[in-house]
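User: Fold this one for me? It's Allene oxide synthase.
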Amino acid sequence: MLTLHKFLDAIESDIAKGGSSSYSPHLQNFIFNFLTRSLVGADPAIDPELAKSAPSTLNTWLALQVLPVMPLLIFQPLEEVFLHSYAYPFAFIKRDYQKLYNFIEQHGGEVVRRGAEEFGLPLPEAIHNLIFVLGFNAIGGFSVFFPSLLNTVATDKTGLQARLREEVRKLSDPSTSLSFDSVKDMELVNSVVYEALRFNPPVTLQYARARKDFELTSHDSVFDVKKGELLCGYQPLAMKDDNIFDEPESFKPDRFVGKGKELLSYLFWSNGPQTGSPSESNKQCAGKDYVTRSASLILANVFQRYDSISGGAGKITAVGKAK
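Assistant: Here's what I get for Allene oxide synthase.
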């Protein structure tokens, strides 16, 4: 977790110099390095120029894809006419995207080979799929979600930080680095991550066309959907259903602890239940497990290293080192 410690070191350095840290740039550099190692099996440090420019490249590439469906709350119908009526040309990002493609082709050998041998993908398609998972599913969603999670924890006044600190230190050895396996039993840490995703899903809207005629049922109604009709899902509404969640407008850190884990089948932030698995037959986020596991791992590391953190609105203003 060397890259995570560099991320936290950068936050501490900013606070020491200016009294606060607007940590988003540090976060994106960290998450790109961490997930490139995890997903691609290659260290971006091999190519320092790419390591520096790739987060910006992926941000631009991601923006060009989501802008046609993102509500910007500007004057209508101008938004629909000029921003939501066509796809943006790949030429805007082609050169920088090609650099990332070349890096994965050269250094992601084992993972790329698995795409070909296990899934029958042509080499270019395997690489494009890796970039999509890395840039859209993982880094894109994580960059939106993690500041929301950290802001929620940093501004909490209910004693949540003390409880997180207690759980992390009870279930970990301070002399060793945390891993995905070491945080899987941290129920409160994982529940806080899930509740943050329920409360503020990183992607609020999803669209799809019906593949066949079917009936869509709710608690008290049935809707006839015809093949080819356009469907829109609004995640914040789905996950604040008071028929499912007690006090849905309140952030409850323990909501998914113990028997509360049964509610994970209603946690749809990834365009499918948290208990589900992405596949070629559904539209569930391919990076959903990377997002949740990485968030839990980072949150646990924060409270292994610090007794407390303070901040809000995308900034960390103070950290209390572990005693």
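One thing worth pointing out: The two ends are 21 Å apart (CA to CA).
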